[in-house]
Amino acid sequence: MGPKVVAGADFAETHGFTGIGRLEDAIAILEGRAGTRIAKAMGSN
Questions:
Q1: How far apart are CA 43 and CA 45, in angstroms?
Q2: C-alpha closest to that of 37 among 20, 13, 14
Q3: Using an 8 Å Cβ cutoff, are 21 and 38 in contact?
Q4: Which of 3, 17, 21, 40 could form a disulfide linkage to 29, CB 3.0–4.6 angstroms apart?
């Protein structure tokens, strides 16, 4: 899962957040009920 987390962190830096999980759980991931969410840190430039 390490490479997914690195790629997700890079994406979140530009786009605010990213989600990692199964396609079947896409809505639940966006709602924060499934998968892994990575968000840009507050105060990051």
A1: 6
A2: 20
A3: no
A4: 21
Query: What is d(CA 40, CA 27) in angstroms, rounded to the nearest whole number?
Result: 20
HSE, CB side, 13 Å, CA atoms: give it for residue 22: 4
Closest CA to 1 of 21, 25, 15: 21
pTM comes to 0.69
Q: Where are the beta strands (DSSP E) in 1-45?
A: 17-20, 36-39
Is-contact 38 17, C-beta < 8 A? Answer: yes
For residue 28, which amino acid is it?
A
